[in-house]
Amino acid sequence: MQNSVMDSPQPKILVLGATGPTGRLIVRQAIAQGYDVTVLARSAEKARGLEGAALIIGDARDETVLRRALKGRDAVISALGTPASPFREVTSLSTATRALVDAMKAEGVRRLVCITGMGAGDSAGHGGFLFDRLIFPLLLRKVYADKDRQEAVVRESGLDWVLVRPSVLNNKPGRGDVRALTDLTGVHGGTIARADVASFVLEQVRGDTWLRKAPLITG
Which residues fall in a coiled-coil region (predicted)? Predict the structure, then answer.
């Protein structure tokens, strides 16, 4: 039987990338809102500070581990990231997402909210001069090539997905004022607080406004 987020009074979510700076905020906000949260992390040490969430230890690229983590879940939030890689090819994001999609199908979990970033897909070229001309080509080109592959895996999954593309992230307090756009005419850059990204992402666990769409979000 497929799990339905809408039928669950207390959404049961799996968060990938929970030990990163945005992932931690997602977990904390979800717990504060009464979500039943499971996180997948490589070690208990990395997951320190995520009290209140159930912990599964393992590699996000391992479908067997993912299936175990997905048991009884209604939805998945992927906040997976990878460091800038100017020279080495990046494949971790698309590999993990491919394994995740297969595991979700096997376990009957349909809702996937996946964070990629401004510069992925048709948002490329909308980051502003510094991002588009210097940061992206010098530091992020290989990372975003894999984000593009990751987005393609999600789009072709047949799941109930939302791709979330934040503008440049900052660690300022959340403002509660998020602009979500798919028409990027005239958009050239922007910044957004990680806390606001976390709030927007959690809204997509149950909301259908952006279902099967890829909004760019900015402050």
Answer: none
Residue 156: exposure state from Cβ atoms within 10 A (0-12, 13-18, ≥19): exposed
Cβ contact 126:118 at 8 Å: yes
Q: From CA 145, how far away is CA 7, in angstroms rounded?
A: 37
Residues 6+ apart with CB under 8 A from 141: 86
Predicted confidence (pLDDT) per residue in 130-145, tens digit: 999 999 999 999 999 9
pLDDT of residue 1: 42
**3 state SS of 18:** coil
Environment class of residue 167 by beta-carbon count within 10 Å: exposed (0-12), middle (13-18) or buried (19+)? buried
Instruction: Report how far apart the first and last C-alpha atoms of the chain are (Å, whole number).
Output: 39
Distance CA 91, CA 144 (A): 10
User: Which is nearest to 200 in space by CA: 190, 213, 210?
Assistant: 210
Report angle CA 99, 101, 102 to the nearest 5 degrees.
Answer: 65
Within 8 A by CB and 6+ apart from 149, the residues are 91, 93, 94
- 153, 94 in Cβ contact below 8 A? yes
**Two tokens, residue 210:** 């952006």
- Class of 12-218 in CATH: alpha beta
